Amino acid sequence: MKCQECRNQFSAYFEDSLPQTVRSQIEAHLKACAACHGEWTGFQSVMEELKGIGRVHAPAGIEAAVLRRLRNLAAAGSTENWVKASLWKYCLGTAACTAIICFLFFWTFARAETGTFASLDASQMEQLETSGFLMLPGEDRREGNYVLVKMNGQSAQPDSRYMPTQAENALYRKIGIDDSIYFGGDEEMEIYYLPELREQERFKNRTQGRPKLIPVATKTAF
Amino acid sequence: MEKSDKQLMQGVREGDEESFAILMGRYKHRLTNYFYTLLNNYDRAAEATQEAFVKVFLKADTFDMDKSFSSWIYRIGMNYIIDEYRKKQRWTSFLGRHFKNNNGSFPTSYQPPAPDEELIRDEKVGKVRKAINSLPLKYRVPLAMKDLQELPYNEIADIMDMSTGTVKSRINRARLLLKEKLARQM
Questions:
Q1: What's the mean per-residue pLDDT of chain A?
Q2: Is A176 left (phi over 0), alpha (psi -120 to 50) or beta?
Q3: pTM reported for the whole predicted model
Q4: What ipTM did this prediction achieve?
Q5: Is A193 domain-assigned?
Q6: In this structure, are B107 and B128 located in the same domain?
Q7: Which domain range does residue B63 map to?
Q8: Judgement on whether residues B68 and B153 belong to the same structural domain of the protein
Q9: Could you list the residue range(s) of the whole structural domain that residue A32 is in?
Q10: Are A10 and B175 in contact (CB under 8 A)?
Q11: B124 with A49: Cβ contact below 8 A
Q12: Does the structure show a pLDDT above 50 at A77?
C-alpha cells in the first residue's frame, strides 16, 4: 500500500467501516512507515479535538423573533403588492423622464459639435490640410471624422522611413489614424478628434470658421 | 404522540404557527451549532438560523414531502452560507480594488472584523474553530455536517447533491487539512 492510498483511508479506518483485509493492509503500512504513522497520530488528535469542540445553544426566544419577522414580512408584503400593482405607472413615468433627459442630452451634445469652432484658424487648417495631416472623410477609418496630429507643437511631418511598432499601429488604429501615415517615435504627439463632420463639402464651408477640436491624447516617445 | 417533521411541515404549509414553532424548537440548537461552526461568530450564527427558519416558512410549498426535512433545512443553511461567502468575496474584492495599501494589505480602518473572541471561552476550542473556519468552503461544509452535526454520509451527499464517495473523500481531505492547520498553530 502506498502512503497516499493509506492516508486517503484514514477516515474510513477511524470510523471502522473498512473490510478486514484493507484494515490489515493499513495496519501493516502504519507499522512500516513512520511518516504515515505520524500522520495517523495527528489525525486521531484532530478527531479528539473535534469531539471536544463543544456545542452552543440557540439564543432564547428565537422562535418568537422568527414569527415576529414573518408577521412584519407579511405586513410589508401587502405594501409590496400595492407597489407591484402600481409599478407600471412608475415604469412609464421613469421611461418618459429618461427619454426626455436623453433627448436633451443628445440635443445639447449635437449642438456643441456643430456650434462655434475654436482652436485653429482657417490658415492653420489649410496648412494642415495641405501638409496631409488633416485626414479627410474616407481616409479616416471612422467615416466622417477627422483626426489631426501635431508633433512638438507643430503640424506633424510624415516620415516614411520610420516603421512603427505594432503597439504604435494599435494606437493609431484605436484613435482612427490611417495606418499609412507614420511618424517619428521621439516627438510629443498631440492627437485631436474633430467630431461630427460627415460631408467634405460641409466641412469645407466651415474652414472659414474655427474648427472645434477635442484633444484625445498627448504622448511622448512611444 | 409526537408529530413527525413532515406532519409539522404539512401544518406549516397551512399556515399553522404552532407547528412551525415546534419545528423551530427541534432544529434551533442544531442549526445554530452548524452556523456557528461555519461562521465562527455566534451573533452571525443566530442571525443565519433566523434566516433559515424564515426561508423554511416562506418556501414551505416547495418542500418535497417524500424527502427528509432535515436534509432540506440543512440545504437551506448551506445555500445561505454560500450566498454569504459570495457576498463577502465581492466585498473583499471591492475593498481590495479600492482600498488596498501599496503593500497589498487593507488599511487599518478596513480590516475585516475579527472573530468574536469573547464567545470563545476555551483557547484550544477557539483554535480548532478558527482552523475549521479557515478551511475552503467545499471542505468546511461537509466537515461541519459530519463531525459537528453527526449527519450520516448519505444525508450529507443528499444535501450537497453529490455522491457519497465524493463526500467521504472531501471529509477525509478536510480532516487532514485541519490537522495541518492545527499543527501549524500549535
A1: 64
A2: left
A3: 0.56
A4: 0.73
A5: yes
A6: no
A7: 1-115
A8: no
A9: 3-51
A10: yes
A11: yes
A12: yes
